[in-house]
Each structure stands twice: as structure tokens, then as C-alpha cells.
Amino acid sequence: MSDKDAMQDMSREWNYHPELPLRDSSIFHWPPRPGHLLRWVGRNWLTLSERVMMVGLAVLLWLFVYPSLETAQSFALGWIAQVWVANLLLIFASAGGLHWFFYMRKGQGKKLKFERRDQGKNNKLWDFSDQVKDNMFWSLGSGVLQLTGFQVVTMWLMANGYTPVITFAEAPVWFIAFLMILPMWSAFHFYWVHRLLHQPFLYKRVHALHHRDVNIGPWSGFSMHPVEHFIYLTTLCIHWVVASHPIHLFFHIVFQGPGAAMTHTGYEDLLIRDKRRLALGTFYHQLHHRYYECNYGNQEMPWDRWFGTFHDGSTDATDETRARKKRMYSKG
């Protein structure tokens, strides 16, 4: 089969996909590519990108929503409940808002939607026989509870001086740099815990719950088994050892929680007047949900390429992924 025929076959399997094979968009190259790195910084941090919007939301949460560190010096039901309610509303607004726009209002139709299918219903694969209700149950239940737990413990550690806390005035360069580092740290952490969750023992008992959603939607992102929520959210423990500000913690909270809804919309971008205005999901991760044993990380980081788990969207990569899965489970 020629490359052209292979790409035509791939196109018939999807409602939409970007140009294939996927290019290497990682910011890590040797020799270094300064131009590529500068374009990445500009695209992510010097425009109204999803990351800049998340930082803005983190600042608002720090100023007006979450309790102060002074309040968090001792555990008390009042401020802990305040954090839980805020997180519940954050997840509900982000996942629910995106689901309403893309899947209820159908505000973008199927433009830039990867899968042709709609969300699953009347199938006992999911709790309540409904994909969306199943996803909401796990996201708003275990997800919000554990996100709140990690946040509460971290705020208490910060408030009592058990972990280093900085201000912008004390360390302006590190303050800004750490905001940029946190998504990279999250991607590094996610790749390795994700590979752990795909080991047959944990996959069958834990991670399979998340992978019930092959055709993902906004509520899929934070829908996980309680054990997976705990493993996934250990990324927040970096604030226990690295000097940070509450804004860094709240940005990280938004990135891991509402951010997961954005990356699992099932659409590549939000269109406004037919122009791409906000990056959402990636075909890179959509391939993971269809073929499982590939693309454990994200496309900005090189881990999948370096460790042989990269799927570039080609039929050859699909064959390699299926063979890898067969080898894994023959050992399990």
C-alpha cells in the first residue's frame, strides 16, 4: 500500500484529523532550535492562549475565591468546604460549559471534531448506562474530592512554613519561570504515571475506567478511578518541595482539573467566526484513546518519541501499537 493510499484509509476512519503523519512539535531538540522555541513561547505565553487564561483564572481565584494562607494555618471545616465548593463549580463550569457548547448546542457542528460518533448512551459499559452521566459521577465525586484534598494539604503546608513560599517581589524571575515550568513538569509526571497505569495489573483494575471513553468528550478528562485520581494528582506534590506562590498552586489546580476537560473535548480548536481562537484537544491524545498503548504523554514533550511509544497517525504506527499491546498482555 502506498503512503497516499494509507493516508486515505486513515482519513476514512476519522471525521477530522490534522495533516499526517504528525510532525515533531516538541520543544526539545538537539541541536537546539532557538526559532522553534521562541515561537512556542510566543504562542503559549505572549498571546491570549489557554495557558495565559488559566493563569488569569488562578489570579482571580487567589484574590476572590480561595481562602488565604492565614486562614489555612489550621484545618477547619469552613475553609475546606469553601475550597471543595469552588473546585466543584470549576469542574462543573468547565466540563459542563464545553459539553453544552459542543454536544448539546452543537455550536461548532462537527467542524474539527475527531470522531464521527456522538457520546454513548443505553450501554451497560458505563455506570447509569450513559457515558456523560458516568463521567460526571467520577469527575464530580472522586475527582473533586481528591483535588480538594491535595490542595488543602498543600495550602496548610504553605501556611505553616513546611514548604517554601515566595512572593513576586522577592523572586520575580523565578515566579514567572515556574509558571512556564509547571506545564512541562505536569507533562513529565503524566507520561510516567500514565505508563504505570497501562501496566496490565493496574490497567485492568484502575485505568480501564477512564478508557471506557474511546469517543471522548469534556466530561471524560477528569473521569477516573479513585486510585487513578490519587496517582494523577501527585503532580501537585511538587509544591511541597519547590518554592512557589499560591498562584502557582492554583494555576496547577486549574491545569490538572478544568484543563483536562479542555484537552478531552474531542475537538481540536474552538472556532469563532470560522477562525481558530482557542486550542483544545489534540489528535495526538485522541490516538491514545483509540489505540491505547501509544502517545502516553503530550506532543510538546519528547518522551513518546524517545521511548518508542509514539503514534504519528499512520497505519504503520497503528500496526506497531497493536503489536506492542499484544506483547504487553501476553506477559500480563
UniProtKB/TrEMBL annotation:
What are the record keywords, sorted?
Answer: Membrane, Transmembrane, Transmembrane helix
Q: Which residues form a coiled coil?
A: none
The Fatty acid hydroxylase domain sits at 182-309
Molecular function as annotated in GO = iron ion binding; oxidoreductase activity
GO cellular component entries:
membrane
What's the short name of a Pfam family annotated to this entry?
A: FA_hydroxylase
The biological processes this protein is annotated with in GO are: lipid biosynthetic process
Segments crossing the lipid bilayer: 52-69, 81-103, 137-159, 171-193
User: Where is this protein chiefly located?
Assistant: membrane
Q: Give the subcellular location.
A: Membrane
The entry's protein name is: C-5 sterol desaturase
Species assigned in the record: Shimia gijangensis
